[in-house]
Hints:
Elements: H1 2-15, H2 17-44, H3 48-75, H4 82-123, H5 129-152, H6 155-161, H7 167-180, H8 182-201, H9 208-232, H10 248-251, H11 253-259, H12 264-268
Helix pairs in contact: 1-9, 2-3, 2-9, 3-4, 3-6, 3-9, 4-5, 5-7, 6-7, 6-9, 7-8, 8-9
Amino acid sequence: MIKFFLKKNFCDIWDNLFFLILSNIIPVAVVVGAYFGISYIGSINSYAPNIAFVVFSGILMAVIFAWGANARKLADFNSPTFGLFFRSLVSLFFKGFIFGSLLAVLVLISRVAILYYLNNFFNNSESSSFSYLSLFLAAVIGWFVIIVCISMQWFVPFYFLQEENNMFKCLKKSFIIFFDNPGFSFFIFLHNIVLLVLTIVTFGLIPGVNGITLSCTNALRLRLYKYDWLEEHEEYLNDRDKRNEVPWNELIADDVESLGPRKFSSFIFPWK
């Protein structure tokens, strides 16, 4: 399943490269605006940048959230449209803004807490139970942030792949997927880090935050086949060992057929 995910995700990005580049211009503009805006506000008031960071994070997430509808279409072998993006931006702006703002607040609180406990540890020259407790608490918060980051990569895909989900259900199911599939979630997280590095190198255009959103949507869409299969085979639900015996070749057979064989030459010479 992993091999097919990598192939499909690459094909989706390559086949829609021009659309991705154009659609990534908006989040890049938000990030650039946030950089200069926060820098300017910081010169006026030392506390205002935190508020600006929360606001710009909300705006950026609203843009990403809106593009999730197109990510769903691409994951389902359909074509994306700018019309769908702008309609989703209007209807989902508030939800995306709240989600992004809450994540930004979590980042700020975690940053302050981790720095506080680390300062307590390093500033205590004598070994003491308090200094080691500070290091332990800093590590706990750090791992909590990592788990949240890995889990939240499923949030936007859940909202669009399962239309019955509200914000709370998306949050709950994101953590469920992580704890039930920690290895898979960590792999996708590393894969997205690679995409993020490529995004930075290409100034945010390829694959960009929208390409990363597509990656998460493709991954979750395929992974949910596991749970559809488990619902039909309840004898596997409570057996931890048998839960791993998922017949992936059978479950993704239709997707493999829909994607079809893709030779390397077809990416360079698509008319052949």
